[in-house]
Amino acid sequence: MGEPGCILPHHGFPKIRLLRRTDPHSTSTLHGPPTRVALFLGSWGPRFLPGSAEAVFKPVRLEAMHPSEIQRMFDRLVDHYERLNHRLSLRIDHYWRRQTLRYLKPPVLDLCCGTGEVAALLHRFGLPGGVGLDFSEAMLRRARARWPNAQWVRADALALPFANGQFQTATCFFGLRNIAQPRRLFAEVYRVLRPGGRWVILDMILPEAPVRWPYSLYLRHLLPRLAALWGAPRADYEYLAESIHRLPVTEIRGLLQATGFALVDTRLLLGGTAGLWIAHKPPDTSVRVSFTP
Predict the structure, then answer these.
(1) Is the full-model pTM beyond 0.85?
(2) Cα 272 to Cα 207: distance, rounded to the nearest angstrom
(3) Is 22 helix (H, G, I), strand (E, B) or coil?
(4) Domain 61-280 falls in which CATH fold?
(5) 12 or 271: which carries more pLDDT confidence?
(6) Using CA atoms, how far apart are residues 257 and 237, in angstroms rounded to an integer?
C-alpha cells in the first residue's frame, strides 16, 4: 500500500489519530440510534443522517511521529509488504508498473524503491539497471539479495546524493504520499534529471463520487483487517490507508509546474483509485528551479 523509502529522518512523519465524529454546527442527530451499517462497523463506521444519503466520516488528526518509529514500522513490513500489496490490489499494482515501462529511458533513478520491483521490471525487459534509493535498510537488504547487480542507495529523498543532470528518468511508485515536503522532492528530482528528462509518479488516490465512499470504507475498515488476517500488523496498514486520504492530489500538478516541470500529463487509473503523473524537464537549460525551503 505504500513504498517505504521516502520516510525522512529529519522531517518527521504524521501519526494517525482517530477522533470521534462531532458536528457542533449541525442540527442533525448524529448521536441518535445507529443504523445497521454503523452497528456493523462499530463506533468508527459511517452513520447516515435521517432522511439523507450523506455519510459522516471520522475526522483525522495528524501528529508528528518520531522518525525511528517510522523506520521500524516499514522494517516490520519487509516480510509482508510486497506479497500483501499484490494480494490486496489483485496484482493490479504489478500491471500498472508494467504500463509505465514505455516512459522509462535509462539511466533510471527509482525513488522509494522498496524491495526493488522496478529494478526487476527493468531487468526482465532488457533495460540497463538503474539506481534504487530507499530509506529503509531492511527493504534495501531484500532488494540487494534479489538483484545484486543493481545499484542500491540508502539516502534521504529530499537530499539526493547525485550530481546534477545524472539521470534521464526518475520514478516514484506508491511513495509520494509518504513525503513530508513534496515540493522539495520535486526540486531535487528536477536537479538530478537531464534536460528533457522525465519524472514519473504513480500512487494510490481517493476517487471521485460515487466510488469515493465505498473505496474509503474499504481502506479504513476492510483493508487493515485483511492485512491482519495475512499476518501483517494491522496498525501499520491503518496508517497506510490513511496516507491515501491525505495525499494532496489537487496540488500535485501545480507543484510540478511551479518547480519548473513542463508538459505534465495526469491520468486516472481504475476508476480514479490511482493517479499517474508524467512530467518533463524542459530541454531548455535556461529554465531554472525557484524553490525556497
Answers:
(1) no
(2) 5
(3) coil
(4) Rossmann fold (3.40.50)
(5) 271
(6) 32
